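[User] At your convenience, examine this fold.
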Amino acid sequence: MTTASAALAASEKLRTASENLTTLIENTLVSNYHLVSLTRPPEEASKSSTSNVYGFTIRGGVEHGLGHFVSAVEAGSEANAKGVRPGDQVV
C-alpha cells in the first residue's frame, strides 16, 4: 500500500468513526442536546489561542465549581450560524 493510499484509508476510517459517533450521540442524548463542530479558519491558525475565532466565549470550569457554559455569541459568527446560544453547556 502506498503512502497516499494509506492516508486515504486512514481518512476514510476517521470519517466513518466521526459519523458513527454523531449517530451514537444523536440516538442517545435527549433532544435538548446538539452536536456542533466548529473549524478554526487556516488564516487564524497562527494567531494567539486567546483570539475569539470561533465566535463565542465560555465561563465556568473547575476553579468556579461549574461546568463550561457559553456566555456570549458573536452575531454573524460560525458558532451563531450553527445554533450556539448563551447558556449552552459545553460537554
About this structure: Residues 1-35 form one domain. The helical segments are 3-28, 78-81.
